[in-house]
User: What shape does this take?
Amino acid sequence: MNKKEILEIRKQFTPETSRITRICGCYVDGEKVKQLKMKQAFLSLPKEEAFKYCDIFRHTLSGTLGKNLLNLEFPLEEEKEEGAQAFLLKLRDSKLADEALLEAFYDKVIASYPCPENYYIILIHAAYDIPGMSSDGTEMFDASDCVYEYLLCSLCPVTLSKPGLSYNSEKNSIEDRIRDWVVDAPAKGFLFPAFNDRNSDIHNILYYTKKAEELMPELLEGLLGCAAIPLSADNQKEVFNTLIAETLGENNRYETVRSIHETLNDMLEENKDEPEPLTLTPSTVKRIFEQSGVPQEKVEHLDEQFKELAGEKPSLIAANLPGARQFLIQTPDIVIKVNPDRSDLIETRILDGRPCLVIPVEDQIEVNGLPVRTMFPTQTP
Assistant: This one.
């Protein structure tokens, strides 16, 4: 799924426009015991309650594509009768009316979700009449000829509210606040089937993780059958940095590394309006290195290095890589943060026999928020 397709599904989650037919839930305590189960028509919920649920569902489709939202493909064996994809398909087609399937789903979540705290499993079924699209991108709601039927699951931590004092309006007094168990924003979730090319794709699933560095392989494999775990955003950064270090070796000069990041940011700028995130394959990374002045002989074995670090089908999401949002220079005692578009402001020079980083000062300088003057007097002609 791309950004536009995710947004198209996400914007449905309001009480007024919702296509949700049924909502089910299971509250699980820290001992993995089901304490509560619920199932009802979504439209029967009180409006305020429905609004809060919709907010959870929007969160489950939020974040950065390729970082918090991951497109995953089911292995072929998971599409067989006993596979994870086949099970989810039965669950979707049941419209969440089959108690045995629901119970089996809750059991699968509990068995594969390594959460030591209380949490709430929310599962919805929805049916979206996909509107036609005119040549100028305008939706034509009277031209729908296909229905996208899907499940959305949100796994929400349930935490005890903080202790404190509160105002009791009935008694007109300040008193100890009653602590409640509160359903928080989702930590994990998924959309099945995926909404690819504005249609149902039962071979793929969209996975959500609030913390990009915690993909939770146990849940991906145990519940969704996705054994080929993608690299997290942090691991992608490590792979890219390792590729640079191993390719450049002793010639790992500041100017070359800066040039690589400038080339990468130029590509991100060109791709910023595209619905698909910019993905780097071995050939793309090789081209970036070559354009940044890395000698040809240094990139000859880059394909093999890439596969060793990132697997047989290696790829990196450009927005996840270091330097995509800021250019960071560190020494043991100094940290310099630079706008990625102005990394050219930092130069390396030998001054008085010592290697130095040189930053030209042209605009106003602030120290801890205080505007200051430079130590250099204003030159007069």
User: Anything to note?
Assistant: The two ends are 62 Å apart (CA to CA). The mean pLDDT is 89. Residues 254-271 form the longest helix (18 residues).
